[in-house]
Structures are given as C-alpha cells and as structure tokens.
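Minutes, structural biology subgroup

Action item carried over from last meeting: produce the structure token record for Inosine-uridine nucleoside N-ribohydrolase (Rhodanobacter fulvus Jip2). EB confirmed the sequence was re-checked against the source entry. Recorded below for completeness.
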Amino acid sequence: RPQLLIDTDPGVDDALAILMAHADADIAGLSIAAGNVGLAHTVRNACTLVDLLGSATPVFAGCATPLVRAPAEDAAFVHGEDGFGDIGFPAPKAVVADEPAAQALLRLTRERPGELTLVALAPLTNLALALRLDPTLPQRVARLVVMGGAVTGHGNTGNIPAEFNIGFDPEAAHVVFEAFPSFDLVDWEATLRHAFDEETFDAWLRAGDHRADFYGRIAGTARAFNRKHDRRGIIVADALAMAVAIDPTIVIRSEKRTVAVELDGRLTRGATVVDWTGRLGGLANARIVLEVDQVRFSAMVRRALGLAA
Ligand code: BDR
Ligand code: CA
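Output recorded by EB:
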C-alpha cells in the first residue's frame, strides 16, 4: 500500500481525499494548514475524521496564517463556517499531537527516507516552512503531489487566474515550487474535467456505509454553493489529487512543464504561470495532470465511501 503524509485543510473535498487514503493507503500523519477555514476548525475537523475512521493517525497543527500577507479570504462560503457544512458535530476525542506540523513533516521523512508520498491538499504554508527549516526535505520524499493552480488561468478566487490553495499563500507555493525538482500538479481546471455526475454520486452515498452518510452530510453547503454558481457535478479537487497520489498510473495524459507562481500582479497575484512553449528552457518542475482514468477514480471514491469498487 502507498505510504502517505497528507497536508490538508479539511474542508469537504479534503475529507473525501482522506477517506480515500484510509481505504487504499497508509497515512503516516495529517499535517494541518489554515485555508478553507481557520486553523482551529481545520484541526478539529481532522480530529473528527480520525474519530470517524477509528484510526490512530497523528494530527499535527500547522501555521494559522499565510507566510507573508495575512489575513487572506477563506472559503467558508463554500465549505461552511466550520469547514464541515455546519452540522454541529460533537467535540472530537482524537487529540492533537504536541509537535508543529512543519517539524513533524521533517521528522517523519527523516525516520522513513524515500518512503513517503507527500500529498498537499491545502495552501502550502506548512511545506514552505518545513523547507526553510530544512531544504533537503525533497530528497527524502518518494513523491510530492500538489492540488493547486489553474494552468490556463481559469482560477476559482477573486483574483481571476488564481486557484484557492495557491492564491491563499502565493509565497509558500513559490517556495515549494522552487524547492522540489519534480512534483505532480493537479490543478483546478483538471478538477472541473473530472467532476462526478450528481445522480450517480447520490446513488453511491445511499449505498455506502457510515462514511458515505458522513460525507453526504458535510457536503451539503458546498453542493448548494456549486449549484448556485452553475458549477456542474460533484467537484472534488482534493479527491482527484489523492487518486493521483495513491496510484500514479491512473494518469492518462500529462505534460512536464515549468510552473512558477506570480507573487505581485495587480490582477494576477497567486496565478500559476506555466511555460507551455518551453521558452525558459531548463528542467521542468511539474508534471501537470491533464486527464485521469475516471473509471478507476470512481472505483477509489466508491471504496472510500464503503461500497464495493
Ligand atoms: C482547493 O481549495 C480548497 O477549497 C479545496 O479544499 C481544494 O484544496 C480547490 O481550489
Ligand atoms: Ca483542501
């Protein structure tokens, strides 16, 4: 089974990604970032998930703000004020580990050099901080998979070309994209191309186990938001990135390109700039995922919700 270290800001689609990881991989730890909602909520939500799964996965609290410019707009209007659809879950039993996320990322990769795939489903603040503490981190991870960016400028934030995870903390994304010689990038535009049909997904939710019930409940606000904004289907960015992390052979079409982050720009801060024409030369850092096998992706999501694949 793949061995994963997950940096996340749960978050509705983060939750589905973590359910997938639980079903098909081993999770060495959850390092938690602020993003979709504030850190207190994302940490609590991670603990709620650990309770739901009955696992002993350690939860590490990370940075509460972006590296440089704070505060940024969060995504409570999509994920709910508490990030989990405002259901009002009881206080979780799982406890938060007594180690900052960035240090935990460094320690776990030192204990298991070359073994762990790092899956980044949130603003890249924790990873950037870890890299500043120890620039050799990339040498110790098997792979890095990032959910982030909008490779042809069709973003999902107030800054038109910026995707949320990159736009929330552009400096952190810049640090990570410069430091890792290669990583898989699953962007927002790929996410839209791999949405699930609502009726099909609802049938899965009805047929699944307690995980499906849970997911159906927390996803309500996000689904209502998407409908209102004419975004069609079940859009689960982090789940798509998780599919690529669990099984890289699920990728059908990709392009290796240099990707950089715009840090200034009156209208473009947080945009991911892709060298599509190869003008910059040199070695490309990102494998941009353009298409995955939707049948295998569906099977992973079904298993995560407690159905036979
Ligand atoms: C990304 O931003 C968050 O709202 C989601 O959880 C996902 O990680 C999509 O742009
Ligand atoms: Ca996320």
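Discussion: Residues 148 and 187 are 5 Å apart (CA to CA).
Next step: EB to file the record with the rest of the batch.
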